[in-house]
Write a structure and sequence with these properties.
Layout (H helix, E strand, L loop, with lengths): L1 H17 L1 H23 L7 H23 L6 H5 L3 H6 L4 H27 L1 H5 L4 H28 L3 H32 L7 H16 L1 H8 L11 H24 L9 H9 L10 H10 L2 H28 L11 H25 L3 H5 L3 H5 L5 H15 L1 H13 L2 H6 L7 H20 L6 H31 L2 H32 L1
Helix pairs in contact: 1-6, 2-3, 2-6, 2-23, 3-8, 3-9, 3-23, 6-8, 8-9, 8-11, 8-12, 9-10, 14-19, 15-16, 15-20, 16-20, 16-22, 22-23, 22-24, 23-24
Length: 524
């Protein structure tokens, strides 16, 4: 049984070894280590422990990349086979459930672990720089390896359970949010209840919540890494976080093995005739006009006027709930209440909600800008239209901009009513931080559009990971330019190089997007 299961796993590993992009990625990871080393060398005069600073940057960069890999790479291990309807073929070939899970998930986890282990010899440079010991390096790598196994197996479980890759990605993303923010949210919740006198430290509810929060902190890789990166760390490599992550990951793998057959049964999809008849009766009265592509994107992919009305209602009700509910809560709260809700703070919270909604909507729209055409193999038909590929892309973006009207109007209203809220949101010593935020958002959307036509799933994770890598690689050069031009141009010397670099990257990405679409059109 296990011999047959390991055959498919070994075949996947051998296939991975023969791929050139795998070795290129490993060399890129090593090159990234040296770039961050150069950045730490530039700032070594301002820190007492340059080795610890260098290793800290590497560790947190690996943490974010592993997290994004779980969202975009591990979570599609089984769902991509479901969507392509190749699972029955794999079963007919005699591949059992254990072999399939090992070959699709364990091999992917092995790739990421090998990337981490490949950095280990070069990370020893941090010991020579000072401020860190080899024991801390081994402990940090061990914590990250255990976290990789946890992420890989939990994502495998979500991939087995979900029917589509989008659902699996959403489940993994929600789990990550709860995993990292649950202790903070529950701590704030307990503080609020305790300040109002609803609970005391002796209550069973209080004790149970505190125990749950403490357990979440024990298994959290972020808390473990923060402890490891403190000066003088001498605990064992096999920490509580490592053991619990391995046990939870193993449990997720066995659960995925148990529910695999039940969740991958092919069931006939019944056609809902009533819905089709209702759709035929409810035809749209508007006509495309000259901007047919923008009309199609607005009405069919972004929801049309109904979605506009729904989003306007949701955003308006959210703002009224935050502002009105906060003022009422502040009015009837005792003076010893921990948080005092003022008008300015409530408007700031509403603005943060709207800006977050704007970013989320842009992310959703740009991640699927050419997804339907590629899935239905309609890109060759688009290429024969009397319009250039870039003109089609711009018209698609125009349709999405119409769908963004509710959130944009809401942001403008908040800024007009309370202008200070915009300055408070981007107040960090640089008054031009709002411009930097817009520049980075535009660059991120370009990356998201490009990866949406390069990879089948996980474009969001690839785009976010590329932004993190670019920020890590560009930091030394931005520091040099700021040292050269900061005294002369002041604040402008910081964001002008970033602006020109982002503008050049957007221009290059637009060329790559056009070439990729033409390549897809010629291949299909």
């Amino acid at each position: 049984m296990f011999r047959g299961s390991l055959i498919f796993c070994s075949f996947s590993l051998k296939k991975d070894i023969l791929l050139k992009k795998t070795h290129v990625l490993r060399f890129a990871c090593v090159a990234l280590v040296f770039l961050i080393l150069f950045s730490s060398w530039l700032t070594s005069s301002r820190t007492s422990s340059p080795g610890l600073d260098f290793f800290t940057k590497i560790v947190w960069l690996n943490f974010w990349l592993v997290t994004l890999t779980g969202i975009g790479f591990f979570s599609t291990a089984i769902t991509e086979e479901k969507e392509e309807e190749t699972l029955p073929l794999l079963k007919l070939a005699g591949i059992n459930t254990l072999a399939l899970l090992l070959g699709k998930s364990t091999v992917r986890a092995s790739r990421v672990i090998l990337l981490l282990m490949g950095q280990l010899p070069f990370l020893m440079i941090a010991v020579a720089l000072g401020g860190i010991t080899p024991h801390q390096i081994y402990a940090a790598i061990g914590a990250l390896v255990a976290y990789v196994l946890l992420v890989a197996n939990f994502s495998l479980l979500c991939s087995v359970y979900a029917k589509r890759s989008g659902t699996a990605i959403a489940l993994v993303s929600a789990a990550f949010f709860l995993f990292f923010f649950f202790p903070l949210l529950m701590t704030e919740f307990l503080t609020n209840l305790q300040s109002r006198g609803y609970v005391t430290t002796n209550d069973s509810l209080y004790q149970s919540i505190v125990s749950c929060v403490n357990y979440c902190k024990e298994i959290s890789v972020t808390d473990s890494l923060n402890t490891i990166l403190t000066t003088g760390y001498s605990e064992s490599v096999m920490t509580t976080q490592v053991i619990n992550n391995l046990l939870i990951g193993l449990s997720c793998f066995f659960i995925a093995w148990l529910i695999f057959e039940r969740c991958t049964e092919s069931k006939p999809v019944l056609e809902k005739r009533s819905g089709i008849k209702w759709y035929k009766r409810k035809r749209r009265k508007s006509r495309p006009g000259r901007l047919a592509i923008s009309w199609k994107e607005f009405h069919f992919l972004s929801g049309g006027t109904r979605a506009l009305q729904l989003k306007s209602t949701l955003y308006l009700s959210g703002i009224l709930t935050i502002v009105g509910g906060g003022m009422i809560l502040d009015q009837y709260s005792s003076p010893t209440f921990v948080f005092s809700y003022s008008w300015k703070e409530l408007m700031n919270t509403s603005l943060i909600l709207l800006v977050s909604g704007f970013v989320v909507e842009c992310t959703i729209y740009f991640s699927r800008i050419f997804r339907e055409e590629r899935t239905q193999k309609m890109i060759p038909l688009l290429s024969i239209l009397p319009l250039s590929i870039m003109r089609i892309a711009y018209e698609k973006i125009g349709g999405y901009l119409l769908a963004l009207m509710p959130v944009c109007i809401g942001i403008c209203i908040i800024v007009l009513i309370s202008p200070d809220s915009a300055f408070n949101l981007f107040d960090s010593g640089y008054h031009s931080l709002f411009i930097v935020f817009l520049i980075q958002l535009v660059l991120f959307l370009h990356f998201l559009t490009y990866f949406s036509i390069v990879v089948r799933w996980g474009a969001l994770a690839f785009a976010a990971g590329t932004m993190i890598l670019m920020a890590s690689c560009a930091t030394p050069f931005l520091q040099i330019t700021y040292l050269l031009f900061g005294k002369v141009f002041g604040e402008t010397g910081f964001f002008l190089p970033l602006f020109y670099l982002s503008l050049l990257s957007c221009f290059v990405l637009q060329i790559l997007i056009g070439k990729r679409l033409n390549q897809i059109a010629s291949e299909e």
